[in-house]
Amino acid sequence: MEENAIRFGIIGCAQIARKVSRAIDLSPNSTLYAIGSRSIDKAKKFAIDNDFPDTVKIYGSYGEVLNDPNVDAVYMPLPTSLHVQWGVLAAEKKKHLLIEKPTALSVADLDLILEACRSNGVQFMDGTMWLHHPRTTKMKEMLKNTQLFGPLQMIHSTSTFSETEEFFKDNIRVKPDLDSLGALGDVGWYCIGAILWATDYKLPKTVTALPALSRNQEGVILACGSSFDWGEDAQVATFYCSFLSNVSMDLDLYGSNGSIHVKDYIIPYQENSLAFDLTRRTHFAELQTGWTAKPEKVQVAAELPQEALMIQEFATLVERVKKYAKTPDDKWQEISRKTQLVLDAVSKSIELGFKPVGL
Predict the structure, then answer these.
(1) From residue 140, how far is each of 130, 133, 206, 254 by CA, in Å?
(2) Residue 347 phi/psi, 5° resolution?
(3) Which of 271, 309, 332 is nearest to 24 (CA)?
């Protein structure tokens, strides 16, 4: 850890906060300074369960973390329904904001958070970890190589897992008052984000939800999918997300000369070495008895897990603002906003009975 490491406060003791607190510890330019929960007992238990050092401040409210003058940045893994309230307040307290996805219940809500961040000169980023790994950079390099890959034509993404009866009874992600977007917000965020990443965040012309929709008794989405169309660009995409299917984290990219397939793009099989399959200029063998080439496995290593790389990049941006008075990097605001905008369109298409929604 650097001497002038960015000091993080965490507000909320969600399970994902365990992973991110470890990432803060692993990142060389950050340190965990404070943790806050709705009660001091819950915060203390979280600290003990995760072996936090005695130097970490323990608070019995979110507001105490935000009021601590030594906290530079906050990580916010709260239920989505609380993001506007605490995200805006964090920005007003001049705390740089790393917020869990989905960033908000709607793009209108997200705009309130983003405006607060802009007005107060603080860095914003959402917690999409896979974007920060060198594998993602390597895949983008190959996508950009038109001789290798050709024009991008089709994208397909999935993010699914099958949960227990306890999850469907008690988890905040199936509660309409806490995370009313359900699977669409939780795992669909990754699918939509991956599709937009592949297209350099060019918004589709049309979004059409697929009829394969499941909800719980309270109306929260448990599984859904959608198709995207870019019109004259001749690109299409599909995704499927679910709390009801076996684990899948597929991203398939198809070009005229090649294709890329990755089966663990959100959470890798192993955190120290990631891979994807590249198939290029492949044809059928004589008599169509096989292929002329097998997929090539491209291995990409990194010194840190992707979540620690996210923390490191965020802390670097915070340091630029804090130490050198630089303007926050608004690239991350744009990425989150476009993802939220498309997510809203999928939700609207579902409400309209799976009719197309223009963007």
Answers:
(1) 13, 11, 24, 13
(2) -60, -40
(3) 309
**Residue 119 pLDDT > 90:** yes
Q: What is the pTM of this model?
A: 0.96
Tokens 């859904």 -> residue? 224
Chain centroid to Cα 278, Å, comes to 24
Report the C-alpha gap between 214 and 235 in whole angstroms: 27
Listed in sequence order, the residues at least 6 apart from 108 whose beta carbon sits closer than 8 Å to its beta carbon are: none
Q: What is the DSSP letter of 354?
A: S
- All domains in the chain, ordered by first residue: 6-128+306-328 (3.40.50.720), 131-304+340-358 (3.30.360.10)
pLDDT category of residue 4 using cuts at 50, 70 and 90: confident
Residues 6+ apart with CB under 8 A from 180: 80, 81, 105, 220
Amino acid at 198: A
Between helices 306-324 and 15-26, what is the axis angle to 10°? 70
Burial class (CB in 10 A: 0-12, 13-18, 19+), 53: exposed
CA distances (Å), origin 171, targets 79, 101, 168, 180, 309: 10, 16, 6, 12, 28
**Residue 45 half-sphere exposure, CB side, CA atoms within 13 Å?**
10
Largest CA distance in the chain: 72
